[in-house]
Write a structure and sequence with these properties.
Organism: Thermomonospora curvata (strain ATCC 19995 / DSM 43183 / JCM 3096 / KCTC 9072 / NBRC 15933 / NCIMB 10081 / Henssen B9)
Radius of gyration: 19 Å
Distance between the termini: 22 Å
Shape: globular
Protein name: Peptidase M23
GO molecular function: metalloendopeptidase activity
Strand content: 15-25%
Order of helices and strands: HHEEEEEHHEEEEEEEEEEH
Number of helices: 5
Keywords: Membrane, Transmembrane, Transmembrane helix
Length: 295
């Protein structure tokens, strides 16, 4: 789907859901039966736009710098599927989650039987430096959300998806902090914004209006917001307002077993990022190199 159409659909999907819910709820207070049906139709239309397989922006990826350094692992990667997180909502179509994995002999598990919950500081990702992906201007810097205990056990995930996730999803319509937790929104270019989320409380080093350089540390990795364990959620989008944003594809340099790659690593794929992948500002990825990388 071209960027202009995807952007327009992104602007209406959340309002459709909200208006649909209001109409459906209000139908019980008057006799106009069509109001309830109209509300239901809007809800279905909004859900279709949120979940539709072809609803992502189709354009060459935007070149950025990896927002981390060291050995990390990708989870929920757009290299595997789009939308990477199962939804286009909140500009997440091409989002990626990154977990710090310094020890190659330690296998990461998405779900554990025990313990039911762990302190955020017990995870390797917690406190790792988070870097600006390009020369940019800070649009939003939200701090103050606590770094909660992990939710990566079966009981924890049940609570996250059945209780906490629903509450946070509703709250995100009012403020993105309910889902993103502590986060920074950067303006990389006209119509290109980056969101870096789930940051550690008290670690933000930037403020709105501040100019930052590619590779500059802006915060530390945490476990705030809608997060099962400490990790970085990174995405590009066409608007600083996540509720009406369309996700944008991106690519950065990384290494696997000493071999340089350019794009985005696949899910559960460990990679190393560092100064070699430095990019000053957003740009277009060479189409030939991108096609070769994608195979």
């Amino acid at each position: 789907m071209n960027g202009r159409l995807a952007g327009r659909l992104a602007r209406v999907r959340t309002p459709l859901l909200l208006i649909g819910v209001v109409l459906s709820f209000s139908a019980r207070f008057h006799e106009a039966g069509w109001v309830g049906w109209a509300g239901l139709a809007m809800i279905l239309a909004g859900l279709t736009l949120v979940l539709m397989p072809g609803g992502a922006v189709r354009r060459p990826p935007i070149a950025v710098r990896a927002p981390v350094e060291g050995r990390w692992m990708a989870v929920n990667s757009p290299a595997d599927r789009v939308p990477s997180h199962g939804t286009h909502e909140f500009g997440q179509s091409h989002a990626i989650d990154l977990i710090y994995q310094p020890d190659p002999d330690v296998q990461w598990k998405s779900v554990r039987l025990w313990p039911p919950a762990r302190r955020a500081r017990s995870f390797p990702s917690y406190g790792r430096p988070i870097l600006s992906p390009a020369d940019a201007v800070v649009v939003r810097a939200v701090d103050g959300q606590r770094d909660h205990w992990s939710r990566n056990s079966w009981p924890g995930l049940a609570y996250l998806f059945l209780v906490e996730g629903i509450v946070r999803g509703i709250g995100a319509v009012i403020s993105p902090r309910f889902v993103l937790g502590n986060h920074v929104i950067l303006k990389l270019d006209e119509g290109v914004y980056a969101a870096l989320a789930h940051l550690r409380r008290g670690s933000l080093r930037v403020r709105p209006g501040q100019r930052v350089r590619a590779g500059q540390q802006i915060a530390e990795c945490g476990n705030s917001g809608n997060s099962a364990e400490p990790h970085l959620h990174f995405q590009l989008m066409d608007s600083p307002r996540t509720a009406i944003a369309a996700g944008l594809p991106f690519a950065f340099a990384y290494r696997i077993d000493g071999t340089e790659h350019y794009g985005v690593p696949k899910g559960r794929q460990a990679f190393t990022a560092g100064p070699a992948g430095r990019t000053g500002g957003p740009g277009r990825v060479d189409a030939g190199a991108w096609a070769k990388e994608r195979g």
